[in-house]
Specification:
Elements lengths: L6 H13 L3 H13 L1 H23 L2 H7 L1 H33 L3 H9 L4 H13 L2 H10 L11 H34 L3 H23 L7
Amino acid sequence: MYGIHDLTLFIISGLLLNIMPGPDSLLIMTRSATQGWRAGSAAALGIGAGTMIHIFAAALGLSALLSTSAAAFTVVKWVGAAYIIYVGIGMLRAKLRGEAEALTDDAQASAVAAAPLPYRRIFFQGFLTNVLNPKVALFFLAFVPQFIAADSTSKPLAFIILGSIFNFNGMLWCHGLAVFTAFASARLKVKPLVALWLNRVTGGLFVALGLRLALAEQHSS
């Protein structure tokens, strides 16, 4: 149908690729562990929305610009890296304030650690973290066409169908990860100070990932 072939292999490969850890998984796990599964799901929905932007952009040929234009790739890369670093620094700053209060007043530290972010803000964190990463766009350009026949009469539609399947499977994994992390956090009774350290570690990883993205080459895998 529409020139799509080896659909089973595509689904299995997509699931394995979604399971691989990255900034999306880190964001979901951190929000779920510190604020519950609904927060993790809000991040997952944002990530899924960002993925759909990449899918439609690739289907329309916009993402091809990133693979051929060094200037376009560099602009998107630096904007994405700056945002990921910004999110990481924001986590570190909030955690450091919470840790300072923990040294003086445990009750106040608990209140700081438990202060929830609005779901809308978490959604847009997931969305921007994903949509501003040019490596995701290049991934779709490299991966999806392998499962579309060269003589397909509707390549853009086939691309959208495969991309939507990939994103749907990714959302199943992401929401499952959110629920599992929240359940494990509740069973382990994660204390406010532990949550602060989790945020600190995640913030540091986001800064590192942002720096890695900033140094990424256009055609690196």
